[in-house]
From TrEMBL:
Lineage per the UniProt record: Bacteria, Pseudomonadati, Pseudomonadota, Alphaproteobacteria, Rhodobacterales
NCBIfam families assigned to the protein according to its UniProt record, in alphabetical order: MltB_2 (TIGR02283)
PANTHER family listed in its UniProt record: LYTIC MUREIN TRANSGLYCOSYLASE, MEMBRANE-BOUND LYTIC MUREIN TRANSGLYCOSYLASE B
Superkingdom, taxonomy of origin: Bacteria
Organism: Fuscovulum ytuae
Signal peptide: 1-16
Transmembrane annotation, as ranges: none
Domain Transglycosylase SLT: 24-311
InterPro entries attached to this UniProt entry: Lysozyme-like_dom_sf, MltB-like, MltB_2, Peptidoglycan-bd-like, PGBD-like_sf, PGBDSf, SLT_2
Keywords on record: Signal
Protein name: Lytic murein transglycosylase
Peptidoglycan binding-like domain location: 331-386
C-alpha cells in the first residue's frame, strides 16, 4: 500500500515531459501539474513547492566534489581516526540488537553499516545543512542530472503526504536524508520502520536508519556471509596487468599465483579482483563481489574503497600496510594526464582531475603499451612519457 504511489511516480515515463532549465517559476508550475497527474493532492504540492528558489550552494557543491581528488591513503587517513573506531565499536555494542537484526534479515554485517554511518554523518551528528526540498528542486531543474533528481522530488512529495517528510527537513546538498543519507526514492521503496512507531524517520531513529541502509544494500545484491575486502601481500614478480576490477579470478587461483592474505582464509570458489588503490607500492586488497555492491551507495572509487576498508577495521582487521607509493599527481597534473589519454582515444569521462575507474583503465593500458609496471597508478613518469 505504501509503495504503490511512489513506484508509479519514479517509474513514470511522463517525468521526461518536465523540461529542465529555463525559468524556475515556470518549471515549478510544470512540476506541480505533473504531480497532479501522478495523483499527488494539489494542497500537498502547493505546500511543498511554496517559496522555492534555486540554491546556488547546491550547484557549486555539485560541480566541485574536490574531496574525491585525494588519494586513497590521504582520504582514508583523513576519515579514519582512533576516535571514530572507538565510537563505532561502542555504538556496535549499544545497538547490538539492531545490528543482529540487520544481519539476520538482510545479511549485512555491522562493520559495513557502521562505516557508512560514520562517513555519511559522523554517526548521525552531522546530517547536512541544506534544505532538502530546495536542494532536490535545484538539481531537478538543473540540466546535468534531471533524470535522477526529478523523480526524487516526487518521492519527497509522497513522503510529505505520508507524514514522513517535514518541509523544513535539512540534509546533504544532493538531497540525501538522515543518518545514513538516503535519497527519498530509496527511503520510500526500501525504508524500514525499525522502531515500530509506524513511520520511517532516518533523521532521528537509529533502528530506522540502519535497517533501511541494510535493506538497500540487500536490494542491490549484497551476498550474506561473503567477504568484501581482504588485505593481501603480492609477490615482487606479480603481473601488474592482472590488477584492477576488470579482472576477476577465483580467489584460490590468486593464492596459487603467490597472493597471500595478511589474515583470514581464502574463500574458495569466490571470484575476486586485485585492488591497488595507489599502485604496486601501496596497500593491496582482494575485492569480492560484495565490494562492487557498495558502488550502489556511492560511485566514488576512493570513497568506497575507504569505507570497505574501515568496515574491516571495525570488525577487527589490522591497519593496512601503507607502503611507499609514488607521489600522487596534483589535480592540475591529473587533468593534463586525462587530456592526453583522451587525445589517445581513451574514454576517461570528464576531465576533472579525479582518478576514477575510467581513468585508471586508460592509465593501465598506456603503462602496458609503454613497458611500465601496469598497476593503474598514474605517475609523473607516465605523464612525462605521454
Amino acid at each position: 500500500m505504501r509503495l504503490a504511489p511512489v513506484l508509479a511516480l519514479i517509474a513514470s515515463p511522463a517525468l521526461a515531459d518536465v523540461p529542465c532549465g529555463g525559468d524556475f517559476p515556470a518549471w515549478v508550475q510544470a512540476m506541480k501539474a505533473e504531480s497532479a497527474a501522478q495523483g499527488i493532492p494539489p494542497e500537498t504540492a502547493d505546500a511543498f513547492f511554496a517559496g522555492l528558489t534555486p540554491d546556488p550552494r547546491v550547484l557549486k557543491a555539485d560541480r566541485s566534489q574536490g574531496v574525491f581528488r585525494k588519494s586513497f591513503l590521504d582520504f582514508s587517513q583523513s576519515l579514519i581516526s582512533k576516535d571514530r573506531l572507538t565510537r563505532g565499536r561502542a555504538l556496535s555494542d549499544q545497538w547490538d540488537s539492531v545490528f543482529q537484526r540487520a544481519e539476520s534479515e538482510y545479511g549485512i554485517p555491522r562493520g559495513i553499516l557502521l562505516a557508512f554511518w560514520a562517513f555519511e554523518t559522523d554517526y548521525g551528528v552531522v546530517q547536512g545543512d541544506f534544505e532538502t526540498r530546495r536542494a532536490l528542486a535545484t538539481l531537478a531543474h538543473d540540466c546535468r542530472r534531471p533524470d535522477l533528481f526529478q523523480p526524487q522530488v516526487f518521492a519527497a512529495l509522497e513522503m510529505h503526504r505520508l507524514g514522513e517528510f517535514d518541509l523544513n527537513t535539512m540534509g546533504a546538498w544532493a538531497g540525501e536524508i538522515g543518518m545514513v543519507q538516503m535519497l527519498p526514492g530509496d527511503i520510500l521503496a526500501r525504508g524500514v520502520d525499525g522502531d515500530g512507531d509506524g513511520l520511517v524517520t532516518l533523521k532521528t531513529s537509529v533502528p530506522d536508519a540502519l535497517l533501511s541502509g541494510a535493506k538497500m544494500l540487500h536490494y542491490h545484491g549484497w551476498q550474506p556471509g561473503q567477504p568484501w575486502l581482504q588485505e593481501v601481500i603480492l609477490p615482487d614478480t606479480f603481473d601488474w596487468e592482472l590488477t584492477g576490477l576488470e579482472t576477476e579470478l577465483p580467489a584460490e587461483q590468486w593464492a596459487a599465483m603467490g597472493v597471500q592474505l595478511r589474515a583470514g582464509v581464502v574463500p574458495n570458489g569466490l571470484p575476486a579482483s586485485i585492488l591497488l588503490p595507489q599502485g604496486r607500492n601501496g596497500p593491496a586488497f582482494l575485492a569480492y563481489p560484495n565490494f562492487r555492491t557498495l558502488f550502489e551507495w556511492n560511485k566514488s572509487f576512493v570513497y568506497v574503497t575507504t569505507a570497505a576498508y574501515f568496515a574491516t577495521r571495525l570488525m577487527g582487521a589490522d591497519p593496512y600496510r601503507a607502503g611507499n607509493p609514488d607521489p600522487a599527481l596534483s589535480a592540475e597534473e591529473m587533468k593534463v594526464l586525462q587530456g592526453k589519454l583522451a587525445a589517445l582515444g581513451h574514454d576517461v569521462g570528464a576531465i576533472d582531475g579525479i582518478l576514477g575507474a575510467a581513468t585508471r583503465i586508460a592509465v593501465q593500458k598506456e603503462q602496458a603499451r609503454l613497458g611500465l609496471p601496469a598497476d593503474a597508478w598514474p605517475t609523473r613518469d607516465l605523464l612525462d612519457r605521454l
